[in-house]
Amino acid sequence: MKTPIKTKEDFSELIKVITSECQYKAPLAFGIARVDLGQLNPEKSLQATYPVVNWSENFGSAAVFISALQDQGIEIDFSKNEVVYDINLDFIEYCLNAFNPFLDEATGSAHKNIQVISAIKEQMLTGFVEQGEFKVCFIFEDAPLESVEATYLKLYAISLAKVGLRKINLNGAFGALPNVAWSEGIPIELEYLRENEIMLKVMDEYPHIDFVDKFPRFLQHIIPADNTRILDTSKVRFGAQLAAGTTVMPGASYINFNAGTLGTVMVEGRISSSAIVGANSDVGGGASILGVLSGTDGNPISIGENCLLGANSVCGIPLGNGCIIDAGLAILEGTKIIITEKELDKIHEVNLDWIPVDQLLNDDEELEQIDSENIFYIFKGSELQGLNGLHFRQNSTDGEIICKRSTKEVKLNEELHQ
Amino acid sequence: MKTPIKTKEDFSELIKVITSECQYKAPLAFGIARVDLGQLNPEKSLQATYPVVNWSENFGSAAVFISALQDQGIEIDFSKNEVVYDINLDFIEYCLNAFNPFLDEATGSAHKNIQVISAIKEQMLTGFVEQGEFKVCFIFEDAPLESVEATYLKLYAISLAKVGLRKINLNGAFGALPNVAWSEGIPIELEYLRENEIMLKVMDEYPHIDFVDKFPRFLQHIIPADNTRILDTSKVRFGAQLAAGTTVMPGASYINFNAGTLGTVMVEGRISSSAIVGANSDVGGGASILGVLSGTDGNPISIGENCLLGANSVCGIPLGNGCIIDAGLAILEGTKIIITEKELDKIHEVNLDWIPVDQLLNDDEELEQIDSENIFYIFKGSELQGLNGLHFRQNSTDGEIICKRSTKEVKLNEELHQ
Amino acid sequence: MKTPIKTKEDFSELIKVITSECQYKAPLAFGIARVDLGQLNPEKSLQATYPVVNWSENFGSAAVFISALQDQGIEIDFSKNEVVYDINLDFIEYCLNAFNPFLDEATGSAHKNIQVISAIKEQMLTGFVEQGEFKVCFIFEDAPLESVEATYLKLYAISLAKVGLRKINLNGAFGALPNVAWSEGIPIELEYLRENEIMLKVMDEYPHIDFVDKFPRFLQHIIPADNTRILDTSKVRFGAQLAAGTTVMPGASYINFNAGTLGTVMVEGRISSSAIVGANSDVGGGASILGVLSGTDGNPISIGENCLLGANSVCGIPLGNGCIIDAGLAILEGTKIIITEKELDKIHEVNLDWIPVDQLLNDDEELEQIDSENIFYIFKGSELQGLNGLHFRQNSTDGEIICKRSTKEVKLNEELHQ
Fold first, then answer.
1. Which residues from chain B sit within 8 angstroms of residue A185, using beta carbons?
2. CA of C69: how far to CAs of C85, C118, C123, in Å?
3. Res. B238 pLDDT band, cuts 50 70 90
4. Which of C43, C173, C251, C315 to pair with C81, CA 20 to 30 A apart?
């Protein structure tokens, strides 16, 4: 135990000492997690629950945690991308001594890391705590993931909107996370079920399994905003990001990890991994936004604001603001889309920077002319990506997929997002 | 306490006295609810569970409940649209005295309101009852909703089929109901989770959240008919109405509140708010019936009997009986649909009252003639709404959306609805 | 009780004696189940949970079980298709005596039937066991189903891949299984809920209902392979078969009983009853494979290997290997599909046995020729069923549904199926 920390000046001095050590490195992210350990392999982490997540912040607390580990003789390798350590009562006492000047202030939204330390102390003294149940995790570099704890820390950061979607490295997540059976939020090793199947079934104690996956669900870890609605917990994977006011209906919807919304959005369709939907847009019932994991060729899709993806439509290209894809229509990168010269002019008005060079200058063959008033062009879906004010339709009298300047203003029903 | 009620004549006399008071007004609906109160705000109702719902019925019980309140000095304002009062043991004892002549008969399906009173007495005497946990609610006018209790009472009335779909005023429901986290049917304030997140997570007591919404689910409150199947509770919102024999599959289906079925229906798609589906119809996998909350321009959609909405079809117009929309097809109000003269004649045979005046007399431009045997007309989807025997198809050799007289008889697999 | 069995030779001798009785018949399938009995009708089975299922195997154990029943005076009618009997401690003791030489070896994956017997003995001696809670079921003939126990036994056999999909007789399953409310895996009679609704609701003990159906869910009974993922338990019905590595997403997917996958498959759509999907295929978001219960005319659909059903596509015909249906496209038995002569030649190269006789020789009217280089044929969907290497597309400039030789190789993202 170091010298008692009595004042905030003492604390500042302590932090200065800790962080001035030559190999010291401030972490990109850190937090203390309660970890669910394997039933058969208690040294294996199955899930990490963080009461508080720190992302490029609270460097003082990070320094205290690092110092508390070093005080127990643990040598921290700051050259690693991520490290995870068990914590014990000595760690907790070291931290409480360091945080001493702030203990009284640590309530509500103030000093949450200190609140975590206090809560763990109480749990260690009054409850049952398994060996290795509480761990501290530091991420020093935004590199491919190796541990369950670091993977959860990054997924938390995304779901808590501490980092933007598609902004951090999630490679390795599938490898780091074990595939487990989930029962009421508790992960269970599949092998444990196999080994105990006969006894559990005979004793009527076979657990009720909600799902089997590597990832938990968003609502197991995240408290949504007051006006956010998720009508079925299975519909949002942990690692998704939902802006306040987003409503996720239970029909055919799904929001994968590293995907989500930037504002009030009605979600009745699929927002695949890496897809982002802008404010006031409506992903209609069964609509599908293709993702990078399976679907597009690695080109992540952003949908702008005030867009409408009609029921059962499929969107395989990025869209700007104010776009509409009609119900049942699939607009993919290779879809050929007809635009009349008149509509092209209108589309230009809201996309001044857009110069469809190849199209207008080179692809003469694609230019067709029916009569003097009816000049039109054929574009590929990928050539229209990211433009504003597009309305994709299929002409039901000849099957042509056409694109016009959108005239309808997309508006969400405000009552549904209060 | 009033004078003892010993005979059924005494009871009749009591009711006469109560209801003859000048301001007395018989309620449109009433019931006694067990109410889930806020964890942080115990004066706030989060959910109201009614063991019995009365809709334009059981006026004697209503009179007793009102009199029991007045007996405690509560002045009931009959000019209000809805009122809600806490009930206590005195209220219960007053009612039991009044119901005395019927107590012995109150079992099974007889005198259910009395059974509720008796059960609450037992619970108050032997269990733990929170202040305000039991409340009585009266609705005097079918007006916009104000309280959680009245909102639940109306949603119960719809889900119990005591009133028809789209028949009562549900305005204000979204404003009346708080958005909460639901755990095993128990509503939890989101702010409670936020305030206690650290402790709950550290102690491994963070609740398992099934969903976050203002509305509960149908199966939390309603017992379906013996031949009704709901394969996933998330798929039917409270306030939906399901006729006996309806099957709701877990794929892409959803039935919103104030929507549902009028007979045996196979539901594998979305029945949006305000949409109604007739007996023996089949809403195919992923099919979407647009609703008034988002989708149509406020024109609620009814689907007739023996209709088939093919897999992934979209229906944006009302349909009569015996209609088919082919798989993958979207029929919206503005969709242009081609009907040959020959098929038009056949459609007329099953829609004798239908005179497509505008179409036949005025829209000459829409009339096209290829040769003497191939006259056809172009209709908008909205012009065909509500007609019987339509079969919508897309001609896959030219992309035309056409409509013919339906020849297939839609039949459900009886085994699936036993 | 028969004579003590001390050696494996004694056991062999016992089996010889039992099985040589003239009416003795080895069962096709058998197992001992823990049965959930009706709350109101305890003589009624609601669910049968088998710790171990025997399908054309372990005939020695079967003989012991049959002999144990006969020892209690039960006369087994071997001419029946299926029989079910309660078992009691005498039955257990008889079996343990017979299995005596194997008791020490009965751990892990060895002698699982003996492990079941031992576990039941322990449960009978130390826990609470209801009358009729443990039953033994024998199926002698693959005939229409009559009992809950036999139905579960067959569904187990399919879900455990002890028999192939579509290989056994499941007729009668809907009639045999009662429709019940399921709460955390426990079946509850709907009538029980009705009779006790008032008390349960007043006491705040109304059960949380997950779903109402005749069938349970796959994950209530089956432990999937380590690399299989089912992201929502509601999405796979008991009686489905999932090959290792299959991933079932939560959006619009569903796998019905007697349907499933033969290898690593990404499932984001519906695999209806009787439909089978081959290895390395991708059922895209909201894609629908029609089933025999409602949809096709009884022609069960198999999808080959390395196929891709695009998002929101509909597949109504069997497909060979390496086929693609583009997003949003519906290919049904009656869909007319255009193939140019050039593409037809390429398709022939990978379908050497295919001779579209009727088409090429007789249907001259269907043969159209635009110019010398552009000969094409029109096929019905059903005429192309089962062929390899087809790519179905809709030409977005004229609405034609065309079929080409597929050029893209369908590959699943390996990370998603580790």
1. 206, 208
2. 8, 17, 20
3. very high
4. C43
Tens-digit pLDDT profile for residues C293-331: 655 567 899 999 999 999 999 999 999 999 999 999 999
pLDDT recorded at residue A392: 98
Q: Is A268 among the residues known to form the active site?
A: yes
Residues of C marked active site are found at 268
Task: Please name the member of B250, B328, B400 whose beta carbon is closest to the beta carbon of C234.
Answer: B250
What number is the average pLDDT over the span B161-169? 97
Question: For B202, which of A51, A185, A412 is closest by C-beta distance?
Answer: A51
Tell me the shortest Cα–Cα distance from A411 to chain C, in angstroms.
25
- pLDDT, residue A2, reads 64
- Please report the pLDDT score of residue C368 as a whole number: 52
State how far residue A141 is from chain B, nearest Cα, in angstroms: 26
CB pair distance less than 8 Å for C194 and B282: no
The contacts of residue B31 (CB under 8 Å, 6+ apart) are B50, B52, B53, B54, B136, B137, B153, B156
CATH class held by domain B179-215 = alpha beta
* Chain A contact set for B402 (CB, 8 A): none
Mutate to test the interface with C, among B36, B396, B409 (most CBs of C within 10 A): B396
Domain C8-166 is of which CATH architecture? 2-Layer Sandwich (3.30)
Chain C CB contacts of B232 below 8 Å: 210-211, 234
What is the number of residues in chain A? 418
Chain A positions touching B313 (Cβ under 8 A) are 312, 328
In the numeric block, the tokens 């499941």 are attached to C170
- Please give the pLDDT value at position B296: 52
Sequence-ordered strand ranges (E) for C332-398: 336-340, 368-369, 375-380, 390-394
For C225-269, what is each residue's pLDDT tens digit?
999 999 999 999 999 999 999 999 999 999 999 999 999 999 999
Phi, psi of B15 (to 5 degrees): -60, -40
Q: Which residue is catalytic, options A82, A133, A268, A305?
A: A268
Q: Is the pTM of this model over 0.90?
A: yes
CATH homologous superfamily, domain A179-216: Trimeric LpxA-like enzymes (3.30.60.70)
3-state secondary structure of B123: helix
Are C148 and C47 in contact by the 8 Å Cβ rule? The answer is yes
Taking contacts as CB-CB distances below 8 angstroms, the residues of chain C near A254 are 249-252, 285
The pLDDT value given to residue A417: 75
pLDDT, mean of residues A278-307:
88
pLDDT digits (tens, 9 = 90+) for A99-140: 999 999 999 999 999 999 999 999 999 989 999 999 999 999
From B149, B189, B268, B305, the catalytic residue: B268
The CATH code that applies to domain C220-417 is: 2.160.10.10
CA B259-B264-B268 angle, 5° bins: 65
Lowest-confidence range among A108-117, C10-19, C364-373? C364-373
Q: Alpha-carbon distance C334 to C290, whole Å? A: 14
CATH topology of domain A218-417: UDP N-Acetylglucosamine Acyltransferase; domain 1 (2.160.10)
**What's the confidence (pLDDT) of residue A188?**
98
Domain limits of chain B? 8-176, 179-215, 218-417
Q: Which residues 74-113 on chain A approach chain C with CB closer than 8 angstroms?
A: none
Whose tokens are 């009461």? That residue is A51
Question: Tell me: domain A8-175, CATH 2.40.128.490, correct?
Answer: no
Alpha-carbon B253 to chain mean position: 16
Residue A127's pLDDT is 87
